[in-house]
Design brief:
The chain has 5 helices and 2 strands. It is mainly α. It has a single domain, classed as Up-down Bundle (Four Helix Bundle (Hemerythrin (Met), subunit A)), CATH 1.20.120. Strands 1-2 form a two-stranded antiparallel sheet. A hairpin with a 5-residue loop joins strand 1 and strand 2. The longest helix is centred in the first third of the chain and has 26 residues. The relative contact order is 0.21. Keywords: Metal-binding.
Length: 161
């Protein structure tokens, strides 16, 4: 069962994540070593947070001690894994009924602090968190003279039309 606006938010996240990964796969060699590492750290952070909250939604332990990987992944496997997790979120959100988004989820932050969010709040968090950090990545790309991917909801709607 599809539930707007969550399904649309996740669709936009999938589209924007894919766009950033596509630009990076084409332009990664134009980044210097430090900027390439920074870009991988940004993508890894987005992805690890997505995975942490994926596990919270599933009621499963995630095994992360921090909102980043222990070792910095390479771009291609990271982009592939991001796509897989994005697809999981799309399928997950589309499977929920409207009332499921109000269901509470109790979990621990990586700091060990207890937390409580509704399923809809978690979905909103991963969407907004990713948008914020894609903006960071876009700024780095612009500073290097690289045009970032389109990332705005209006761009998504225009492209989908």
């Amino acid at each position: 069962m599809t539930c707007q606006p969550y399904s649309q938010l996740i669709a936009i996240k999938c589209w924007a994540d894919r766009g950033l990964c596509d630009v990076l796969s084409e332009q990664f060699d134009r980044l210097g070593k430090d900027d390439a590492i920074l870009m991988l750290r940004i993508l890894d952070h987005i992805h690890v947070v997505d995975r942490i909250f994926q596990h919270h939604l599933q009621g499963l332990p995630h095994g992360f001690q921090a909102p980043r990987s222990d070792t910095l992944p390479e771009l291609e496997p990271l982009a592939r894994s991001m796509k897989e997790v994005d697809e999981w979120y799309a399928s997950y959100v589309d499977s929920l009924a409207r009332e499921d988004f109000e269901q509470p989820v109790d979990f621990l932050f990586t700091s060990g602090k207890p937390a409580h969010m509704r399923r809809g709040e978690i979905v909103l968090h991963v969407c907004l968190h990713g948008a914020y950090h894609r903006g960071n990545a876009g700024a780095v790309l612009q500073l290097k003279g690289i045009t970032p991917s389109r990332d705005a909801i209006t761009d998504f709607l225009e492209e989908a039309a």
